[in-house]
Amino acid sequence: MFKILFFLISDAFCGLSLNAKLLNKRGMDHGFIIETETQFIKEFNGTRPIRFKTKNGINIELVANFLDTNETYGPSDSVIFKGDLFDNAGKPMNIFGNKPVVLKLGQEKKFEIKRGKGQILEFTIKPEVN
User: Fold this and answer.
1) 83 CB contacts (<8 Å, ≥6 apart)?
2) Would residue 27 count as lying in a domain?
3) d(Cα 116, Cα 111) in Å, to the nearest integer?
């Protein structure tokens, strides 16, 4: 009886994780490209933000939740993201343009930020259910 109840309870809740990639490209103004890539998967716990710091000093701070709709029972297939990336000095990069981003589960979205002369930062996110 206890095993069945545990299975039903654990099956009723669904977790949300983020598959992300940060690609830093340099040297584009000199005719060559040096790339530094960081990939990570983080699990969201309620409304607490996830924080991640790369070796390059880029800080990532994001909050995500299932988008609440009255049309479906259970978790939605859409996820709302809020947050930003911060440079070495703690200055926000304004990656989402001061408004939340809504993505479907499994949908990948890429953001590009030009950072100085010959540098581009690509940030790719993809929400997944775990």
Assistant:
1) 49, 60, 61, 62, 63, 96
2) yes
3) 16
Please tell me the distance from the alpha carbon of residue 44 to that of residue 65, in angstroms, as a whole number: 8
Q: How many separate domains does the chain show?
A: 1
Per residue of the chain (130 residues), give pLDDT as tens. 444 433 334 444 568 899 999 998 888 777 778 888 889 998 987 778 899 998 888 999 999 888 877 766 777 889 999 999 998 899 999 888 888 999 999 999 999 988 878 888 999 999 998 7
Cβ-contact 63, 80 below 8 angstroms: no
| Separation between Cα atoms, residue 41 and residue 12, nearest integer Å | 23
Range of the domain at 89: 15-129
Instruction: Please state, in angstroms and rounded to a whole number, the distance separating the CA atoms of residues 25 and 32.
Output: 10
